[in-house]
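dude i think i finally got it to work??
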Amino acid sequence: MKILNLLTLTIMFTLFFTGCKDEVSKQKAEYDPSKPVVLKSFYPLEGGARTKILLDGENFGTDPSKIKVYFNNAKASIVSSNGDRIYAIVPRLPGEEPKISIVIGKDSVVYENSFIYHTQAQVSTVTGNGKKNFKPGMLSEAEVYGKYLELDAEGNIFMSWRDGGSPATFGIARINEKQNIVTPLIEAPSTTRILFANGLTVDRATGMLTAAHESTKEVIFTFDPREAWYPRQRNVKFSTADLQSIVDADRYKNFVTFCPYDGHLYTRYRDGKIAKINPETMEAKIVHQGPYGSQYGQAINPKKPWLLYMTLHSNATPTEFRQGISVLDLRDPNGTGGFKRMNAPGGSGFRDGPIEDALFNYPKDIKFDNDGNMFVADYGNHCIRMVTPDNIVKTVAGQPGTAGYKDGGPAESQFNQPWGVAVNEQGDIYIADWSNARIRKLVIE
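look at this
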């Protein structure tokens, strides 16, 4: 009996001690807002996108959903936390030497040392064989001569073309890597110009593809994925005064862009007028009168979806807007900020660095990734440039001033007058390498 009582006491003491220990451990692991979050060290000290990193410190808590980790402004994925160590994944393109910050509750703390980020890039060819023609089929057999590109959330690449071939045709095609196919959505001889398309836009929430007919004031085409992207002509409805205000000789609208900020479409005419269009009713109005000139690119920044960016032709007037990147705030398009050029004036050139000092050489299409990085098809410099969210311009692929065709990393890849760009949900960049008559893919991370 004494032995049994002693055994019972031992078991009870062990359970009590273990329970107390677990309770102490649990209390220690939980985030305590009355105590500071302490940072100690992280490992590894350098790496690239998707590098696994361990962040050591105190008072992190064990609930990953309550912890945020940033590399500069880029948000990292968090795998787990035991209270004193966070296991995270380095995000894509945070900057060369990002600071790591941890946000828990009202606490926001930053590691003293910076992480050394190594950018990696690789260019490959998706489709096309150098023949300046359009021929549908499997990716390895298709021929493309695309100018502008756009992507939906499902990975479909949409391409507009308007040159090449005998006889020449104009149209829009769908390219899908997974399905290994290039198919036309609309195609017609250049003499008929059923749809004279340049820039394309997609509402990624609905998948609706929209293209502007360049040569008519009112006509745009929509392609609904629920109808297998069957083309439908729709006419924009202006007031009589607005319609008459668009100069007939400068009626050309090269682009239309969906704006998730207000759910409207925006297009610009060569005479500088910018119109806002309701995609459901097609009712439209002129909201801004900007500089004169043809246009090469247009895009919305998803991080600041009220900002509309454009690249203008060498015929722009005033001349300060030629061959540069400009921006318009759609919240107040006629406000004091107005239509502003971002990069340095001076026409054709090449210079990386802060955007106010940067130069481009016939910049064509522009698109953004979901982190707010802008990618520019620098046609005259034969390369792809990136403008970071803090407005630093970098060359990420191609050899500035040297035309050619070569896949590979940044040091060896070559382009020949790249014209169109588009970026998917993962941040992969697709390029219409116009004079090489190919669609290329740039993975940068």
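DSSP finds two helices and 35 strands in the chain.
im so relieved honestly
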